[in-house]
Amino acid sequence: MGVWDSERRALTVGLVMTVTLVAFEGLAVATIMPEVRADLGGIRLYGWAFSAFFLTSLVSTVMAGRAADRAGVGRPFTVGVVLFGIGLAIGASAPTMLVLVAGRAVQGLGAGAVSAAAVTTVARGYPDDLRPRMFAVMSTAWVVPGLLGPAVSGVVADTVGWRWVFAGLLPLIVVAGGVAVPRLRQLPAAAESAGAVAPSNARVAILLAVAAGVLLAGLGEHRLLLAVPLVLGGIAGVIPALNRLLPAGTLRARPGLPAAVLLKGVLTFAFFGTDAYISLAVTDVRHHSVTVAGLALTAATLTWTTGAWIHAHRSGRVAPRTLIATGMTLIAIGIALMVVGLNASAPLAIIVLAWGVAGLGMGISNQSVILAVLAEAPAGQEGTASSFQQLADLLGVATGTGVVGAVIAVGQAATWTRADSLRVGFAITLAMAVIGVLLTRRLAVSGRNEPAATAALPPAPLWG
């Protein structure tokens, strides 16, 4: 019996195809966004192409998880695939940057639902002994997109146009959904076999997403009379929502589980807040094509994989806080090298080197943080702790990309050069990486009780 046997083959193929396509799209958008901006304009909305996706993913992940418990995984997965396809169609035909951002928000709704449904599917559609293998297979589905996605999307954008990066995935999404959905509909809902379904945090998640969006809009607003109330209003909504959704003491970095969850958000803020703007740095500052920019993103994928294997071989002998601090330090070095790479006199290869170093740090620290969260969780509450780190993951990416995007928007209004805007933005993500190193001191785990580690191939934040 295995994940590829005749009984589960269609389910496995459908899930792997869907994960692969979501992975390819995520990596492709990070590569082609400079081409999109050059065609549609709207540099002030550049960061929103990423933040909108992850803020709506946050909401749909919570809502789809509850729906999967109540009605089975088939319905939320189907809705997710349909929404993701609609988002692709909107992106492919977008006449303005605002419409593209709207399409990305719809894609995020779909991707979050697919993510939650896929994880639940593994729990219900595979026996205990096959679940680790299936999660490994799903992680492996990021390999080909990670290696080829940036380069292929760059070539497509440079030859036939960026719109085909969105449009080309549409028929593949239909095929993937057609393979997986019939099998998913046969899986039982939790309500049929496990009694009552846990209460939903959907309203709080919606409040958090809206408040975070208001906060990011305020940070990117150059008119002070409008910026101040937006920022204050956003903070007033974000803090109570986070206090409801995360462990008590998370915002204060209380030692133990709260600090570990906070570390996950800081980690993704620092890495992905920079990662989303690598292509912009290469095209707008260094004046090279998006195909060249894809090399830096591919380098990060390769070194992320290397870092994950280093973690797998060292985690039993090195304390998690040491591995996390090492990884965060490498990310900080990578961001600092990116700032150097913005200088016209610096060799272009330094950008590829910089993001390769950061990818190595992400590979080492990402899995270490996840395992630290599980190690800090009270016995029997590992699932709840896992949901905490996933929420921190999504929010970290959304705010990291949003804050740097806000800096670029302010810089545009203040007539800064693009290089200066990116320097300020990367200085913020660098500071977050340094804060991450300091936060590792708040972890209580020594490494002796750490869960057994397995090598994890580089997932996107959605699947991390």
Describe, in short, the structure shown.
The protein has 464 residues and is mainly alpha-helical. The protein contains 18 helices and no strands.
Keywords:
464 residues, 3 domains, disordered C terminus, Growth Hormone, Chain: A, mainly alpha, 18 helices
Account of the 3D structure:
- 76% of the residues lie in helices and 0% in strands.
- It is an all-alpha fold and 464 residues long.
- It folds into three domains: 1-199, Growth Hormone, Chain: A; 201-245; 251-464, MFS general substrate transporter like domains (Growth Hormone, Chain: A), CATH 1.20.1250.20.
- The longest helix has 32 residues, at 9-40.
Low-confidence stretches: 191-199, 447-464
Q: What is the CA-atom radius of gyration, in angstroms? A: 21 Å
- Counting structural domains, the number is 3
Strand content: under 5%
Please give the count of helices. Answer: 18
CATH class of the largest domain: Mainly Alpha
Q: Which architecture of the largest domain per CATH? A: Up-down Bundle
- The shape, in one word, is globular
Helix content: over 70%
Strand segment tally: 0
CATH topology name of the largest domain:
Growth Hormone, Chain: A
Outline the biggest β-sheet.
Answer: none
Structural class: mainly alpha
CATH superfamily of the largest domain: MFS general substrate transporter like domains
Q: Which sequence of SSEs, written as H and E, runs from N to C?
A: HHHHHHHHHHHHHHHHHH
The average pLDDT value, as a whole number, equals 84
The rounded distance between the terminal residues' Cα atoms is 27 Å
